Amino acid sequence: MSSAFEVRVFGDLTVRCDGEPVALTQSRKTRALLAYLAVQQKQQRREWLCEMFWDVPDDPRGALRWSLSKLRQILNADGETRLAADRNVVQLKPGSIWLDYDLIRGLSADAVGSLSTERLEAIAAAFAGPFLSDLYLPRCQAFEAWRVYCSNETEILHLKALRALIDRLGDEPERALPHLHTLQSLLPDNDLADEITCINERARVAVTARPITAGTTAGPGSRPSAEPLAPEPARDLTLPPSTRTSSGKQQIRYVNARDGTRIAYAISGSGPAIVRASHWMSHLDFDWESPVWGHWIDGLSSGFTLVRYDGRLNGLSDTVCQDVSFDAFVDDLECVVEAVGLDRFVLLGISQGCALSVEYTIRHPEKVAGLLIWGGYVRGWRARGNAAEIVRREAISALMRRGWGQDDPLFRQMFTNLFIPGANRVQMDWFNELQRRTLTPENAMRLSYVFADIDISRSLERLHVPTLVLHANGDLVAPFSEGLALARSITGARFVELDSANHILLAEEPAFGNFILEASAFANEALQAQTVVAVDPRTRRQATILCADFQYADPVMESLPPDVALERVDPFLTQATALVRDNGGTVLTISETELVASFGAPEPLEGHAALACRTALAVRELVLRHGDWMTGVRAALDTGIVIVGPTRDRALEVRGGPVSVAHTLSQALGRELVVATARTRAAAGGFVSMEVLAAPLLSEYPRNQRLFEVSEIRRGRSRWQLRADTQLSPFVGREMQLQILNKAWHDVFDGEGQTVFVVGDPGLGKSRVTHEFVGAIPHDDAENLEVGALETDLRSGFVVIRKLLQTLFGVGDTEAPPIAIEKVLAAQSAQGFDERLLDPIMAVMELPVQDPNWAIISGQERSRRMQEAAVGLLLFLGRRKPVVLLVEDLHWIDSESEGVLVRLAQALPTVRCLLILTCRPEYDRSAFAAAGPSEIRLPAFNTTEAASLLDYLVGRDPELERLRGAVSDACKGNALFLEETVRALAETGKLEGQPGRYRPSGEVDEIVVSASIQTIVDARFELLDKDAKRVAEVASIFGGEIPVLLLRRMTALPSLRFDAALQNLKKADLLVELQVFPEAFVRFKHVLIRAAVSGRIVSSALVELHRAALAELKAYYADRLEEHSERLARHAQQAHLWDEAVGYLLISARKAIRRSAHTTALEQLDLGVLLLRKNEIADADEQEIEFQLARGVALMAARGWGAAEVLAAFERAEELCGKIGDQARLFTALRGRAQYYMLSGKPAAAQELACRWAGMVKDDSDPGLAIETEHMFWTNNFFLGETAAAQNHAERAIGLYDPDRDHYLTYKYSGHDPGVCCRCFAGLSAWLAGEPDKARLRCEDAIGLAGRFEHPLSMALAYWGTSYLHMFAGAPEAALRAAESELQIAEKFQLPLLVGQAAFQVGWGQFRLGERASGLRGMEEAISAIRRTGAEMGLPYLIGLYAEALGESGRLDSARKSVEAALELGRYNGTYFQLAEVLRIEACIREKSGGGPDEIEKMLHKAANVATLQRSAIGQLRIAVELARCLRRRGDVDTARELIAPHGELIGKLDDSQDGRAAREFF
After folding, report:
1. Out of 3.40.140.20, 2.40.50.40, 3.40.50.1820, 1.25.40.620, which CATH number does the structure's domain 247-527 have?
2. pLDDT tier, 1 (very low <50, low <70, confident <90, very high otherwise)
3. 1023 FRET partner, CA 20 to 30 A, in 276, 389, 758, 841?
4. Where is the region Disordered (predicted)?
């Protein structure tokens, strides 16, 4: 039986199970982990948890596993999986525990005062102390930051709740007094003594005056208990088991209505949305399991996303609220729709929910695609005016007061007969319990009377949406006549009469089935089967957070009157706010003591970290200027992912880890500093100088969490100059672009000025190309001037030109005005430019102007003169000496500076000046058109150039080949993306070593978007309009090509708006068109851009998007789902639809096996097994059998038949077959296990299984089973040395096999075609039996059959058999040709066992053809490779051949050891394949080592006996030849001939083979 768990985080962490305290582990980190998971509710990535709690060099994942194991022992002890974890994520399932934090979840401080008194008292009673007061973990920086943040937030809510209670309970002093005492203890500095005395006296008087009644226990010191928000257990009622599963398939969430009432809503199913308006008596949890409502939820969740909610006073929503007006109920519906984020849906009104639905539809016709009404009315029972009905209802009301929620048979029978007269006992009990759980008697009465008087019948004429009205003809709650009248009053409404007496249709009655059919058809038609995806307004962003604590001179400030103090502080805060805004930031909060600002969110900012640091230092300077009353500032910065979303008042808020970390850091600083985390330092790059912060300055933080003191902003005229100090990658490619620039420079040198635009996407290397060019020009040949725009330059005028002039005159940013003026005057004097240019130039440089009339000139005129002066000065320089002026990043240039450059470009042809301008494609260059500029478009690197850069970044380690391919694929030749992606892989531990010499460290599942790339994409993304953003976000969840029709449907934009948005995305170079006819397809230009756009979407919205995508793809590919199973599997997994994901993964894996993509198949199969084991999936064991059987087949190819993983897969399948009693698939598991035993050198075990299998299937008529039975025997017998038996089994299989019928066996049992295999083994056995012609025919047939199927493994096997046949025949050239074909296939399709076999055969052929050294080395390496696959069958023979080659090479000692090892291995495994040949080789090696004639003959006779026993005619002949040679050496030629004579017939068949020639020597 499931236990009830209660977790409390207010005070010390405590856990109770069924009311009893649970002893927790002593590990504080484990307890902290539990608290964090409980409060956060969402899935947490293992990497994040490791970083949060165990960011240490040893084994953080091991520590996390240990902690999770301890928590599982507590939380999952009763068999219910509350704590779920897989290899990626961990989650404490929502709703599986009662948590005190839920009392205040989502509650803002401003909303506390509007809560009901009961809710406030529950909150007050829940606080036993500060948030997690016993879990201070100073070495876990991220956790501590989170804990402090939550502690601060909850403390504020607690104080607000206490104050609200005290004020509200003024007339009940005995209830107010405990809260006042608590408030005083929390705020000891606030003197509440007088208030306590006053209320204490009033409480005493009130208690004294109150009459004493029995049962009164409350007194002045009593405290109200917290009202549990979790459902109460049934009282004295044992409910029958429900046919429904747990509530894990619905998501219950909460939203605050406009008056603060908390409304609970639930989401289930997937597809187009149906929203069910609230009705009388609902309870989201209880209805989910109820036989009264459960089938409704199932039916409406099938193919649809069903949204239900408990109305106020009902179920899980607040049961105490003041406003129960009709408008309040409509407002609740509006809030739920808004919270879910629905744009268009079908609205279902049941009973009293009909009136709510009608009113909502009239208010929001654009959202309601169709109105569906069941048993509804728009006039309440009193408003209908039927006297008899009124009398009956009043009587029911009287009974309700006495019998509501009680086990009163009379009331229950009356009430049940009214709503579900057809109910059975089980349904009656559930309905009775629904009364108890849903409404209190008082609330039931209130609601009954509220809806008695409603009448919105006159509003029906304003209803103009498709409407379907259904009504039961025997309904006693809502008269049939009301439903009929309702349909007649709505224009175009359709009415359906259902035959039932039940107000709530029951599952077993036909009327319910008809209702679901009608409702589903109507909803699909109304929505036009269009999946409208909810738009989640929240986004994820990369941002830097600045938190600054202001320090004041307390004696000075305390001595000032409050108004005077404010007069000092307010201007300071205004100036600080201006500093934030000038640097592109957003002030989140600002007060007398603290400033919190965000850079990069909500407004995108590519250089957010550097600009945040610049702001921090500027704020510090501002504080120093007020040193008479301020002592300093303690500022902290952190960078990372934040969530940007709207608040209830539509303003944007920024939340997330960096906010908490920066806040905690600033508070923990012991003195005035500006500090940054390592993340901020990395993001700021070369723009900011920082020094490692000494550990003692921040003792509360762990030493391994490095912090840095921000010292200064590094000055540069452009972003490139600031980056160039770091180590640069080698310059790659761009020869053509350099040639164009060189041509322009030669034209300039000849007196013709040029303007050249260098245009390219971010990261393509615009700065690198231009600086490589400019850097190659000798300084003596030209005046080189370089400057660039920054993101913040758009906020003021002449910024870029000012930096240009400062460069020209050698003036620093912080130069004192007198010194700067002196430098300008000196330059004028030296160069001799017109003095009239001085004043405007001084104005551009923001220096004092000498002309007294300058101030009275209009602003427009001043701007004109400043532009002309700047242009005139630059033209003057160009006439004196060639000038190269490089201005970068014009997409950020201010308009005044742009105006100067436009005028300059137009005048350039007259002077020797090369103006090089860089910009992104979106920059509007039309203003320069009159100047006729050249334009260089930078393309992405081609494959060769990208590979060259990767050589430098990563290195050429062969193990990196796959990763290099993935990186190259993702980055599509973008240099910056390549550099940043490699850096991110190194930082996350996926690469280890040094740049250019990296080694892989673990698997890389996908290329992760680095923070810098995410920032670039964010900035570009924010330039798009709302529709384009919507289309891009929906498109981002798809991998590869995206059908435009599907994208159009999912975005639900009007056609013209969608087309415009798609066009904008193409112009922005985010999407590219793949195909227009017959179907249009697009894809993202870069995988990383797609990932970055997807990375902006919050997790919950991603899940919904994937659900919608899955529904649309299934409709789009309805006739070819299998063809697109990989895509469907991905979306199902991301949508957390585990059943569908598993099904599509299995289909995809089987497809991959058929096309010999075994590694891909294993990835899909392993993922499927993981999902089956980690999630609640129906028939998981049965499905896992299919996965394990398929894994076994894929592993045979990908690892080799003898790999241990093959055995593990089939053993697991066998175990599961036994568990569920699946005899049919047990055969397949046994067959797979037998195949493993055969190849791994365990023939006895294989033979036992083969016999067992044969016995099981002997009476089966399935030819496939008969073939596979023979298959087991021909393979096993062959390697046992029983070649005659092997040939018999193989020949029988040839007779049974039909290629059209039986090729499917390839993918079911052993990964290769049995028809090919039996021909190979029949051919090899025939050769050994002395039938060479038949042997050749069988092997040729094998190659032909394999070629027909074009199945790689079968084809490689056919070449394997053919190569062996030629090796038997002593034909090295033919053996080598077949082996090379085998090797080519095996390497291409990654078949390791056959790679090893082919490599040995190649080595043998090379050796026999005279390439002895390479041949020997190849054979040696191949034997090791074969052993690595676990295969040992046939290995003794190969080792024997290797020993023979060693002996012939004169390495007799090694040869002897090798042949002994071969014989020992054969004896150990019991495998005697070619044993006679190995014994012959042993005798030959012994003879070369000096063995005597008698000894050699004895060894050869032993070999001959084995050949005879094995019925190997070729073996007998070969050994006879060796014995004859021994006799001939003795001079006994006649006896030698007599020894060969019996083999005459075979010798004749062998033609000119090696064995034939050797035998003919004696005739």
Report:
1. 3.40.50.1820
2. low
3. 758
4. 210-250
